[in-house]
Automatic annotation (TrEMBL):
UniProt keywords, alphabetically: Membrane, Transmembrane, Transmembrane helix
Record family assignment: Belongs to the multi antimicrobial extrusion (MATE) (TC 2.A.66.1) family.
Membrane topology: Multi-pass membrane protein
Transmembrane segments: 47-69, 97-122, 134-153, 165-185, 191-214, 320-339, 359-380, 392-411, 417-435
InterPro entries: DinF-like, MATE_fam
GO molecular function: antiporter activity; xenobiotic transmembrane transporter activity
Subcellular location: Membrane
GO cellular component: plasma membrane
PANTHER family documented for this protein: PROTEIN DETOXIFICATION 44, CHLOROPLASTIC (PTHR42893:SF46), PROTEIN DETOXIFICATION 44, CHLOROPLASTIC-RELATED (PTHR42893)
Protein's UniProt name: MATE family efflux transporter
C-alpha cells in the first residue's frame, strides 16, 4: 500500500509540474495578444483596438483551423515517446513539417483573396478596415513559420520537455513584447509596429525550435531515420487524416461561433467593439490557462496509451476533472476581485471601460461553464480519439446558433454574450457525455495491468 501511495504522490507531482509548465508556456500567447491590445488601446484612437482585434481574428481563424498540427503532433509524439521508439518519433515530426510548409506557402500565395474575403465578412467601415489591411499585409508572411512552430511545439510537448517549451515561448515572446513597445511607443508605428513585432518573433521561434530539436536528435540521426515510405504510408496518412479532419471540424465550429460574435460586435460601433475585444482578450487568457492543463492531460494520456496502461489513463481523466473544478472557481473569483484593474491594463478610455463593466458578468461565468470542455479535450487528443471532440462541437454549435439568432436580436450585446456562454457550456456538457464511453473503449483495447508497479 505504501508503494502505491508513493506512486500516486509521484504521479500527482509530475502532472502538476507538467501542467504548470505548459500553462506558463501557453500563457505567453494570449499575454502577447493582450500586450498588442494594450499597446494600441492606450493610444488616442479606439479604432486601433478594433483594427488589431479584427486583424488578429483573421489569423486566429487561419491558424486555429490548422491547430491540429500542434495537437495531433503532440499526441503522436507522446505515443512514440511512451513506446520508446526513436525512429517513430522522427517520423511523426517530419510528416507534419512537410504539411506545414505546403500550407504556409499556400496562404502566402493566396493572401489577397483571403484578405478580400475577411474584409467583406466583417464590413467594419473604412477607418477600421484600413488598419486591418495594414496588420494583415505584414503578418501574412509569417504563415509558414507559424505552422512549423505548431509542429515543433507539439512534438516537444509530447516528449514532456517542459523547460524547453517554456524557454522557447518565453524567449520569443519577451522579444515580441519588447519590439511591440519599441515600434509603437518609440517609432510611433501603431498597428504596423504590432504586426512587425509579431512577425519577427514568429521567425525567431522557428529558428530556436530547430536548435532545440537538433539538441535532441542530431541532423545526421534525423536524416538516417527518415523513411519516405513510412512517412507517406497510405494507412498511416489515412489515420492522421482522420484525426486531423475531426480536429478541423472542431475548429471550424469554434471559428464560426467566434467570428459571428466579433462580426456582430463590429456592427455595434467602435466603442462596443473595443469593449468586447478587451473582454474577449480576458477570456482568451482564461482559456489558455485551461489549455496548459489540457496539454498535460494530453501528454499523460498519450503516454498511457503508448504504455498500454489503462489504470494510468483512468487516473489522468480523474485528475483532469479535479483541476477543472479548482481552476474554474479560482479564475471566476480572481476576476470578481481583480477584473477592474485588469480592464484598466488594456485601456484608459473611460467610455470603453464603462461599456466593458456592463458586460463583465459574462466573463465571471465563462470559466465555470467552459472548464470541462477545454481540459477534458486533452484526454481525447492525447489518445487521438478525436471523433468524440468533433461530435460534441457540432452539437454545441447548433445550440449557439439557436440562441444567436433568437435571443441576440432581442437583448443585443447581452444576448450576444449569452450565445457565447451557451456555446461554452454545451462544449463541456456534450464532451463529458463521452467520457464513460471513451474509458470503456480503452478498457477493452488496452492490456490492463494489475501489478502494483503499473497502477495506482
Amino acid at each position: 500500500m505504501k508503494k502505491s501511495v508513493n506512486i500516486e504522490k509521484i504521479r500527482n507531482t509530475e502532472y502538476l509540474k507538467l501542467a504548470l509548465g505548459f500553462t506558463l508556456s501557453t500563457l505567453t500567447t494570449p499575454l502577447l495578444n493582450s500586450v498588442d491590445t494594450a499597446v494600441v488601446g492606450n493610444l488616442s484612437n479606439p479604432v486601433f483596438i478594433g483594427g488589431v482585434t479584427l486583424g488578429g481574428t483573421i489569423f486566429n481563424t487561419i491558424y486555429w483551423l490548422f491547430g491540429f498540427l500542434r495537437v495531433s503532433t503532440s499526441g503522436y509524439s507522446a505515443k512514440a515517446f511512451g513506446e520508446n521508439n526513436e525512429k517513430e518519433e522522427i517520423t511523426v515530426l517530419i510528416r507534419p513539417i512537410l504539411i506545414s510548409l505546403i500550407l504556409g506557402f499556400l496562404f502566402v500565395i493566396f493572401q489577397k483573396a483571403i484578405l478580400w474575403g475577411f474584409i467583406h465578412f466583417f464590413d467594419a467601415g473604412k477607418e477600421i478596415t484600413k488598419y486591418i489591411e495594414i496588420y494583415f499585409n505584414i503578418l501574412i508572411w509569417g504563415a509558414p513559420f507559424v505552422f512549423l512552430n505548431y509542429t515543433f511545439l507539439g512534438w516537444i510537448m509530447g516528449r514532456k520537455e517542459i523547460k524547453k517549451c517554456l524557454i522557447l515561448q518565453l524567449m520569443t515572446n519577451i522579444v515580441n513584447i519588447f519590439l511591440d513597445l519599441y515600434f509603437v511607443e518609440v517609432l510611433r508605428m501603431d498597428v504596423a509596429g504590432v504586426a512587425a513585432a509579431t512577425l519577427i518573433s514568429q521567425i525567431m521561434t522557428t529558428l530556436l525550435s530547430i536548435f532545440i530539436i537538433l539538441r535532441t536528435f542530431s541532423l545526421k540521426k534525423i536524416l538516417y531515420n527518415i523513411n519516405l515510405k513510412e512517412i507517406f504510408d497510405r494507412s498511416e496518412i489515412k489515420k492522421v487524416g482522420a484525426v486531423n479532419s475531426d480536429l478541423v471540424i472542431r475548429t471550424v465550429c469554434l471559428l464560426i461561433a467566434t467570428n459571428l460574435f466579433l462580426e456582430k460586435a463590429a456592427h455595434n460601433g467602435k466603442i462596443i467593439l473595443a469593449a468586447n475585444s478587451i473582454l474577449f482578450q480576458v477570456q482568451y487568457l482564461m482559456s489558455y490557462i485551461f489549455d496548459g492543463f489540457a496539454n498535460a492531460s494530453s501528454v499523460f494520456s498519450g503516454i498511457a496509451a503508448g504504455e498500454k496502461n489503462f489504470r494510468k489513463l483512468k487516473w489522468v481523466m480523474r485528475k483532469s476533472i479535479q483541476f477543472c473544478i479548482i481552476i474554474s472557481i479560482f479564475l471566476s473569483t480572481a476576476f470578481v476581485f481583480g477584473g477592474k484593474k485588469l480592464l484598466l491594463f488594456y485601456t484608459k478610455n473611460a467610455e470603453v471601460i464603462n461599456i466593458a463593466n456592463q458586460y463583465k458578468i459574462w466573463i465571471i461565468i465563462f470559466p465555470l461553464v467552459v472548464s470541462f470542455g477545454l481540459v477534458i479535450y486533452g484526454n481525447f487528443t492525447g489518445t487521438t480519439e478525436t471523433a468524440y471532440i468533433r461530435n460534441s462541437m457540432l452539437q454545441s454549435l447548433v445550440f449557439f446558433l439557436i440562441v444567436y439568432f433568437t435571443v441576440m436580436p432581442v437583448y443585443q450585446n447581452h444576448g450576444l454574450w449569452l450565445s457565447f456562454i451557451v456555446f461554452s457550456l454545451a462544449r463541456s456538457l456534450f464532451l463529458m457525455r463521452y467520457v464513460k464511453k471513451f474509458l470503456e473503449k480503452y478498457k477493452l483495447e488496452l492490456n490492463v495491468k494489475t501489478s502494483i508497479n503499473s497502477g495506482i
